[in-house]
């Protein structure tokens, strides 16, 4: 945060010396820096054309069935060919399902042209007509105020699921939020909020839609409503605006928009250009999110509790303390009317506001519950306090009308009961606020301000401006100085530095960044100055997606939660019956002298004694503790996981992960780094510029092995980013075999052994021997032929991930079996498995065969976790009991998985399993505490100890105990915040085994 206070007049350059901010000394971009590495000036015109396309037409979606794709290289070829076409907004290729979805502008291109382009690449393509219709499903999040226990949340959930058009509804008691998936053509968010409010709870809309961002602006200078209509009209004219909401009293304008089409600076510009520029717009002050509402709830409970003390303390003193002080006792016992004393009258006056003003929330909550034929905690409190209060009123009125009646009032019981319950709720919301700290911390990672650069037509920096980070738009160029946070997701267009990404990925080591490298918003720039082009802002940013993932995880219910839901249906009615039976038993026992009269305290009779036992039973029972046992532990557990770089998608994943006894690993990108590199070279003949000739041939290929060879050649020649290779003529790629071309007048063939033999080129014995050696080492041998003579062999390997061997060893010590299932050949698979210590290997497996193997293991009695990263792993990730996706893997794999390992380290597989075990043990402990408390507390409150010990639990003490039980369960869950990874993993870190 210190970077915010750095002087704007002086910055520190990369070598540490100070320099003034002379704009003429700013870096010059050899090409427009708003484009990634490799984009030319011609591409600049293409991108400008795309911006024009977006302004002329609405985009359209088309889905194609593409036959013939076998790997990610095929998918890359199809995607690249489509994106080169004019009018293409986005293209996504799914190899697994043989489908390609294209978002395009129909004014510039049509489906048939796209289909022909796919076929030109070499694949068969068919348009899927029936899936062209736009999907109308949306997701909205609504905050629900007033829920007190599981009965409340299940009532709201059942009402929402009964609304026509709602596909799915989840209501979380701990977060007091609902997540609803609905068909926007059938129902809208206002109707959903109305359905919630009809159940008696307050509903506040948080967000609607997954592809929209929302900004709140305050407009100054508005005097009449007509001006707001002009502002609304101006905003709706901007392409990409999805919704505009105006609150004239607050002078607040809320705009929902698509960040890839527009942004908040455009809105401010549009507002300020209206009516001779007399309006001024700025970001609306104050937060929007969960935290302000949580702070308001805490503040309200605090005020309620303090006011209750103002009235309750005098009630307590007059009934419990002053009665033992002779002078004051004489005044309090003085008669007002008949047997009515001053003390009784004072207690009645003081207890009444506590009962009906401070305690009104319990009446309204009980009424709402009973109206929907359910019973919650509010019903118990309302019944208990009403019994004490109205019996006391009856006693006071009878004393005032009778010259002989001497009764005892329980005004202190009702007042103290409400005060202690309010205190308990205050402590509970404080503790619950701590359980969601992970989300608050994630949100705080985004910097408050950013330095926006303005460029001239030649790419020179002409101006710098510090802006609110919420005003950043897509394609902005941002300056990131040392010690400041990266303001948005993007890629580096100028500069070099190291960025600490631990706050997002959990990776402790700073990552080197240079031109072309991607950066994540919220991470910390450590040394050099970076210029970054923003690519994902608002709801599209990595930080927003992680927050959304953690929020969804905290909304999801663990299967064990069903246990509490079942109990909650019968808990409150059962407690009411037990309370009535307790009162009736003690009343009848006293009426028929079943116990000695000496048992009855001198200040009351047998009816009052029975009433105290009945009220105590009613108020000591706590359904809240049961309802909070699971969600609070899941909230803290998923939050801790996020801070460790392990994103757990809810209670289902947590509950399943703690049972895992078998883990299936993919090989490429999971056990290995997933990026082939040249590890050895054997020259059979001396050839000048050998690597230059090979790289010039392979640079035209999209295959991962070709890229490895080109990168190796670059590295050998000094790693020049702008490396220019000789031109290759008559280039031809033979899928699965190799490539050939003519470079500098020489015929170059680069490929496997069969490729050269099919080209009538003999392979020397020493080359054959070297190929055999590479196969034994799980390496791929690539032969190079120049003018029909084999002149060299390149050995390419996908290196094993650091720490993989140790991770497998730790899993074995935990009695968890490790298995490898891969699509690679048997030789490579066995070699890698032997290296990491895996005994069972299944190679040459297709995607459906991987999923079949998972099911086979499950049928054998294993609880299976699958760890993978590729599109072809998606079926297996879904089939497994727990799917774990490597964070650096494909979006499809991450979507299919239950747990995402952000750091791509295999040690985090162990962390995920260990954290799930710790979280689930905490859930068990919470249930033991909540159930044990009620099982022990209710009999004691009913007076089982009274006959032998004369011990009885006053109702106000029972109320305090009930409040304490909920707080205790939440605090028990909060202990998970101090979770530490297994010591064996800490040992690995000390030894320096980390993935770069």
From TrEMBL:
It is a multi-pass membrane protein. Gene3D superfamilies: 3.30.70.100, Calcium-transporting ATPase, cytoplasmic domain N, Calcium-transporting ATPase, cytoplasmic transduction domain A, HAD superfamily/HAD-like. Residues 60-126, 138-204, 213-279 form the HMA domain. The chain crosses the membrane at residues 303-325, 345-363, 375-394, 414-431, 570-589, 609-629, 927-947, 953-976. Keywords: ATP-binding, Copper, Ion transport, Membrane, Metal-binding, Nucleotide-binding, Repeat, Translocase, Transmembrane, Transmembrane helix, Transport. The keyword Plastid does not apply. It is found in: Membrane. CDD domains: HMA, P-type_ATPase_Cu-like. The keyword DNA damage does not apply. Pfam families: E1-E2_ATPase, HMA, Hydrolase. It catalyses: Cu(+)(in) + ATP + H2O = Cu(+)(out) + ADP + phosphate + H(+). PROSITE patterns: ATPASE_E1_E2, HMA_1, HMA_2. It is an enzyme of class 7 (translocase). SUPFAM superfamilies: Calcium ATPase, transduction domain A, Calcium ATPase, transmembrane domain M, HAD-like, HMA, heavy metal-associated domain. GO terms for molecular function: ATP binding; ATP hydrolysis activity; copper ion binding; P-type monovalent copper transporter activity. It comes from the Eukaryota. GO terms for cellular component: membrane. Belongs to the cation transport ATPase (P-type) (TC 3.A.3) family. Type IB subfamily. NCBIfam families: ATPase-IB_hvy, ATPase_P-type, copper ion binding protein. This is P-type Cu(+) transporter. It comes from Papaver somniferum (Opium poppy).
């Amino acid at each position: 945060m210190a970077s915010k206070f750095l002087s704007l007049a002086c910055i520190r350059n990369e070598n540490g010396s100070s320099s003034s901010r002379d704009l003429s000394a700013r870096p010059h971009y050899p090409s427009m820096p708003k484009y990634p590495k490799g984009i030319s000036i011609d591409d600049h015109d293409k991108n400008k054309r795309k911006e024009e396309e977006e302004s002329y037409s609405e985009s359209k979606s088309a889905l194609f069935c593409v036959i013939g794709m076998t790997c990610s290289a095929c998918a890359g070829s199809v995607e690249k060919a489509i994106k080169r076409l004019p009018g293409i907004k986005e293209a996504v290729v799914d190899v697994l399902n043989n489908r390609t979805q294209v978002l395009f502008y129909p004014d510039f291109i049509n489906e048939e042209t796209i289909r022909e382009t796919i076929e030109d690449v070499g694949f068969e393509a068919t348009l899927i007509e029936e899936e062209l219709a736009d999907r109308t499903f949306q997701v909205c999040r609504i905050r629900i105020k007033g829920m007190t226990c599981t009965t409340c949340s299940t009532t709201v959930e059942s009402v929402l699921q009964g609304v026509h058009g709602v596909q799915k509804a989840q209501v979380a008691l701990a977060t007091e939020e609902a997540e609803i998936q609905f068909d926007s053509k059938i129902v809208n968010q206002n109707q959903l909020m109305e359905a919630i409010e009809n159940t008696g709870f307050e509903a506040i809309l948080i967000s609607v839609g997954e592809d929209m961002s929302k900004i709140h602006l305050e407009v100054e200078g508005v005097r009449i409503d007509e001006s707001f209509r002009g502002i609304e009209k101006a905003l709706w004219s901007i392409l990409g605006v999805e919704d505009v909401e105006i609150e004239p009293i607050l002078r607040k304008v809320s705009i929902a928009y698509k960040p890839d089409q527009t942004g908040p600076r455009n809105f401010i510009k549009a507002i300020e250009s209206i009516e001779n520029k007399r309006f001024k717009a700025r970001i609306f002050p104050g937060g929007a999110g969960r935290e302000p509402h949580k702070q308001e709830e805490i503040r309200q409970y605090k005020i309620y509790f303090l006011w209750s003390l103002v009235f309750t303390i005098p009630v307590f003193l007059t009934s419990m303390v002053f009665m033992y002080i002779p002078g004051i006792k004489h005044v309090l016992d003085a008669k007002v009317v008949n047997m009515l004393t001053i003390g009784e009258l004072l207690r009645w006056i003081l207890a009444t506001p506590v009962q009906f003003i401070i305690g009104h929330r319990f009446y309204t909550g009980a009424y709402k519950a009973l109206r929907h034929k359910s019973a919650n905690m509010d019903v118990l409190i309302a019944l208990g306090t009403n019994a004490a209060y109205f019996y006391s009123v009856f006693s006071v009125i009878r004393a005032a009308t009778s010259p002989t009646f001497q009764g005892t009032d329980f005004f202190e019981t009702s007042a103290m009961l409400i005060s202690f319950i309010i205190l308990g709720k205050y402590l509970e919301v404080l503790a619950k606020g701590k359980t969601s700290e992970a989300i608050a911390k994630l949100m705080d990672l985004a910097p408050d301000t950013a330095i926006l650069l303005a460029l001239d037509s030649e790419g020179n920096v002409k101006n710098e401006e510090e802006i609110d980070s919420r005003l950043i738009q897509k394609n902005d160029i941002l300056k990131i100085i040392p010690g400041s946070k990266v303001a948005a997701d993007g890629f580096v267009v100028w500069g070099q530095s190291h960025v600490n990404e631990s706050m997002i990925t959990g990776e402790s080591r700073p990552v080197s960044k240079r031109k072309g490298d991607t950066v994540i918003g919220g991470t910390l720039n450590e040394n050099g100055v970076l210029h970054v082009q923003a690519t994902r802002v608002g709801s599209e940013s990595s930080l927003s997606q992680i927050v959304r993932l953690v929020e969804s995880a905290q909304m999801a219910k663990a299967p064990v939660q069903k246990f509490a839901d079942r109990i909650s249906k019968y808990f409150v009615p059962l407690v009411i019956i037990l309370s009535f039976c307790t009162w009736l038993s003690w009343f009848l026992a006293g009426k028929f002298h079943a116990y000695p009269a000496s048992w009855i305290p001198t200040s009351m009779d047998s009816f009052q004694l029975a009433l105290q036992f009945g009220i105590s039973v009613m108020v000591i029972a706590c359904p809240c503790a049961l309802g909070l046992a699971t969600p609070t532990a899941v909230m803290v557990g998923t939050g801790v996981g996020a801070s460790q770089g392990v994103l757990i998608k809810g209670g289902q994943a947590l509950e399943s992960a703690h049972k895992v006894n078998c883990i299936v690993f993919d090989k490429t990108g999971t056990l290995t780094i997933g990026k082939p590199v040249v590890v050895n070279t054997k020259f059979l003949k001396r050839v000048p510029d050998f690597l230059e000739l090979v790289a010039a041939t392979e640079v035209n290929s999209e295959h991962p092995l070709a890229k490895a060879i080109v990168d190796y050649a670059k590295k050998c020649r000094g790693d020049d980013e702008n490396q220019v290779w000789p031109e290759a003529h008559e280039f031809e790629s033979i899928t699965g075999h190799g490539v050939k071309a003519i470079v500098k007048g020489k015929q170059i063939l680069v490929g496997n052994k069969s490729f050269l033999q099919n080209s009538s080129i003999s392979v020397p014995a020493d080359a054959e021997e070297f190929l055999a050696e590479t196969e034994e080492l799980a390496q791929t041998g690539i032969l190079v032929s120049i003018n029909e003579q084999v002149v060299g062999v390149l050995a390419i390997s996908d290196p094993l991930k650091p720490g993989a061997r140790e991770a497998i060893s730790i899993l074995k010590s935990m009695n968890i079996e490790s298995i490898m299932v891969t699509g690679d050949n048997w030789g490579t698979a066995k070699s890698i498995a032997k290296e990491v210590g895996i005994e069972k290997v299944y190679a040459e497996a297709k995607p459906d065969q991987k999923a079949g193997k998972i099911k086979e293991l499950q049928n054998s009695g294993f609880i299976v976790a699958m760890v993978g990263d590729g599109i072809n792993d998606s079926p297996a990730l879904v089939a497994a009991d727990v799917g774990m996706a490597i964070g650096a893997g494909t979006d499809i794999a991450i979507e299919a998985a239950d747990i995402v390992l952000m750091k791509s380290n295999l040690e985090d597989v162990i962390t995920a399993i260990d954290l799930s075990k710790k979280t689930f043990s905490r859930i068990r402990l919470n249930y033991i505490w909540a159930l044990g408390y009620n099982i022990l507390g209710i009999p004691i409150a009913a007076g089982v100890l009274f006959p032998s010990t004369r011990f009885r639990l006053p109702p106000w003490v029972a109320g305090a105990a009930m409040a304490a039980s909920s707080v205790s369960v939440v605090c028990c869950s909060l202990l998970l915040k101090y979770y530490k990874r297994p010591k064996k993993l800490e040992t690995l870190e000390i030894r320096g085994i980390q993935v770069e």
